[in-house]
Design a protein that fits this description.
With 417 residues, this protein is α+β, with helices and mostly antiparallel strands. Helices cover 56% and strands 19% of the residues. The strands form 4 sheets. It has a 5-stranded mixed β-sheet, covered by helices on one side.
Length: 417
């Protein structure tokens, strides 16, 4: 949900809540005010009628108002009270509300029960008018808030969304930097200035790290080659003792490992810099077939059974060499970590490649699995870069590489994003 929509919904929600609470309260308050006014009017009429009955003889008192009824010498005097009555009128087929005051009057001419009533129809009409007015104000207020939100989104938040778009497009490994312009709003200017500075610093740090990795890797190639050549020359000399042979073997093993590590770091640097030279539609089925043929000796050595399901062809636009490395790393890992006499599965669909091997233990830590120099246990002899290289290659060509543990299998699944 966008920020403007979130804020608008909160505004409208609070407005609706306030109006739903305030409208009934306002209605009750206005109703009480009107009833009080009517009661005061009835009290004034009571005073007037009482005075007239006291001053005039009863035969001279003439009542022309049908709302007032006077009963002379009743059997029982009514207690004074004021109340609301809702009688049903058959002729109009409706209920009409009245406010009624009843009170007794004693004069020298006799006793009287007086009853004055006043219709509440006009008050109810007034209340309905007020209620309709409140509802109209509520609808107009809600519509106004929506219009304000639309205008705010178009004008006030426009620089913010522009900044957001620029941030989405910014890549620290691209030549073009982040240049966010200043506007009229101080807070957004401060934000843009901070982001420009942060992007420039990160870009500089990234460039320094990239150059260091490239230079270090290139510079290491020559001394490693010299060491390896000298070792081979030393092997060809006479009179090598058993102790010297062991030392030479250890040096050769370490040199080979350093050379592979150096090559892996160079490869990662090229992937991060997007130095691709041979992008083409690549058939992953053919690559997997090639690796299956090349690794027959390892498969036989561990007595593995290979389950192959190529129901469809998985073709990806990718650098051919990197595609071979990607598939090779996954396939080699499956063979390497599969237990003796177990099964390795390779399943290919139109948009997916899955390579799985049975597991002797539990699931791997997928949060660390694809990170640089991370190993799942201390017995691994690899450089800890194979899966990270596979992950980087996949990401560079809009593929998703994920790991899951199901049916006691380590499953690596490659599919289109």
């Amino acid at each position: 949900m966008k920020l403007t929509h979130y804020i608008s919904l909160r505004y409208i929600g609070v407005t609706i809540l306030v109006m739903l609470i305030s409208i009934p309260l306002f209605y009750v308050a206005i109703q009480n005010v009107l009833i009080n006014n009517i009661d005061e009017s009835l009290a004034a009429q009571k005073t007037g009628i009482s005075k007239k009955l006291q001053l005039l003889p009863s035969e001279n008192f003439v009542n022309f108002d049908d709302r007032i009824s006077i009963e002379k010498n009743p059997r029982q005097l009514l207690p004074e009270k004021i109340f609301t009555s809702d009688p049903y009128h058959k002729e109009d087929d409706e209920i009409e509300s009245y406010r009624i005051i009843e009170f007794p009057v004693k004069t020298t001419d006799g006793t009287f029960n007086v009853r004055i009533r006043q219709s509440l129809v006009e008050s109810e009409d007034l209340m309905k008018s007020i209620l309709y007015l409140l509802i109209s104000v509520f609808v107009a207020l809600t519509a106004t808030l929506l219009l304000i939100n639309i205008q705010v989104k178009k004008r006030v938040w426009k620089p913010f969304y522009h900044t957001l778009d620029q941030l989405k497009k910014f890549r620290v490994d691209h030549a073009e930097g982040l240049h966010l312009a200043r506007g009229k709003i101080n807070e957004l200017n401060d934000l843009n200035d901070s982001l420009n500075e942060l992007a420039a610093t990160n870009k500089k740090v990234f460039q320094s790290q990239k150059e260091f990795t490239e230079n270090a890797s290139h510079e290491l190639q020559t001394p490693l080659a010299i060491i390896q050549n000298n070792i081979e020359l030393f092997w060809q000399t006479d009179f090598i003792t058993e102790q010297q042979a062991e030392i030479l073997n250890d040096i050769s093993t370490a040199t080979t490992r350093m050379r592979k590590l150096n090559q892996a770091l160079l490869l990662l640097s090229k992937i991060e810099n997007k130095q691709f030279t041979n992008i083409q539609p690549v058939n992953f089925n053919l690559i997997v077939d090639t690796y299956i043929k090349n690794y027959q000796e390892q498969i036989k050595f561990k007595n593995l059974s290979l389950k192959k399901d190529f129901s469809e062809v998985f073709i990806v636009e990718i650098d051919f060499g990197l595609a071979e490395i990607l598939v090779g790393n996954l396939f080699f890992n499956a063979l390497k970590y599969a237990p003796q006499e177990s099964e390795v599965e390779v399943i290919i669909h139109k948009n997916e490649l899955k390579i799985a091997n049975h597991a002797e233990g539990s699931a791997l830590d997928q949060h660390q699995l694809f990170k640089r120099f991370q190993r799942q246990n201390t017995h691994e002899k690899g450089n800890g870069l194979g899966l990270e290289i596979a992950k980087e290659i996949a990401a560079a060509f809009h593929l998703d590489l994920k790991y899951q543990f199901e049916n006691h299998q380590h499953q690596f699944i490659l599919n289109r994003q």
